[in-house]
Amino acid sequence: MRAMVLQAPGEPLQLQERPVPAPAAHQLLIKVLACGVCRTDLHLLDGDLPQAVLPRVPGHEIVGQVLAVGSQVAPYWIGRRVGVPWLGWACGHCAFCLAGRENLCNQALFTGCQIDGGYADYTLADARFCLSIPAALAPVEAAPLLCAGLIGYRALRLAGAAQRLGLYGFGAAAHLLIQLALARGQQVYAFTRPGDTQGQDYARKLGAVWAGSSEQLPPQPLDAALIFASVGALIPLALAATIKGGCVICAGIHMSDIPAFPYQLLWGERILRSVANLTREDGKAFFAEISHTPVRSHVTRFALIDANSALDYLRQGKVKGAIVLTP
User: Has residue 163 been placed in a domain?
Assistant: First the structure.
C-alpha cells in the first residue's frame, strides 16, 4: 500500500510502499476512502506537538470501509463505513476517563500523531473509538466533520447559550460551525487575517452578520468568541470584543505565545478556556444533531500523492472550506 510518511519535523512527507497491516485484537483494518487535511497536521510537520512519535503517517479525519477485524471485534463490522477521529485510544480507568473526560486522559493516543493515520491507502483503528458515518454523507463530505466539525462542536457547546458568536480564523472548522450556529438562531461575527477580503466575503456568503479583520472590533460586543487560528495574540483582541461574563474559547491544539495584556480585559467575570481533544460522546451528539440540522462541507480535493501540495495550500490559506485527500 502507499503511505505518506513524516520522518522528521520540517521535512516534506515521503511516499512509501508498505505492507497492508493486520489488525490487532480490538482493531479494524480500514480501506481509506477520504482523509481530511487539518491544521493540526501542519503543527505535526512543524514539530509543534511534543507528544508526536515519528516516523508517522498523518491524518485524523478518516472515512473508510472496514475490510477485516481483530480477534475481539464482532464480524458484523466488516463492510461497514466508519469514521476515525483524533482520539484513537484512552485507558478507560483513570480519574478523567471514569468522569467522562477521556479527552484529558494522560495515556491517550491520537490518530496521525502517535498512531498512524489516514494519509495512506489503508489504516488500522481501534473499533471502540470509531464513529458511525451517516449513509447520506459522501466520504469526502464526512471527512472534515471528524475533527474540524467535532472540535468546533465541542467549542460551541462550551460557549453555552451565546447569542452573538465570534469566530476567529475562518477555515475548515468555522465554515462548518457557522451552519450549526445559524440553525440554532445565533448571530455569527467572522474574523479573518487582516486583508483577507475573500475570506470575509466567504463568511458573509455563509450567513455571517458581519465579517472583518481580527484586529477590528465587531459592531456589537460578543457573548462568546471561539478562536480557531493558532495565534496567541488573538486572545486579548477577542477578550476586548467580548462582554462582561462572556467567554473566549481557544479551540486549537497548539497556539503561539500569548502576549501580556491588562487585567481589565479579563476582569468582569470573562472566562478564558481551551478545548482539548474530544470524547466519543461528542461524536455521538454531533452526528445526532447534524442528522436533523444538515451541515455541508465545502471541499477541495487532492490526490493522496499530492499531500504535500495540499498542506502547502492549507498553510497559505488558498482554500476556503476544507481540504480532503482521496486515494
Answer: yes
Q: Which three cell numbers stand for residue 75?
A: 464480524
Q: Find the helix or strand (DSSP H, E) in which 142 lies.
A: helix 139-142
The answer to whether residue 149 scores a pLDDT higher than 90 is yes
Q: Measuring CA to CA, which residue among 77, 67, 63 is closest to residue 22? A: 67
- Domain containing 193 equals 149-274
C-alpha torsion angle, residues 170, 239, 279, 122 (rounded to 10): 30
CATH of the domain at 317: 3.90.180.10
Supply the pLDDT for residue 244.
98
**Residue-wise pLDDT tens digits, 100-129:** 999 999 999 999 999 999 999 999 999 999
The answer to whether residues 180 and 225 belong to one domain is yes
| CATH number assigned to the domain comprising residue 227 | 3.40.50.720
pLDDT band at 318 (very low <50, low <70, confident <90, very high): confident
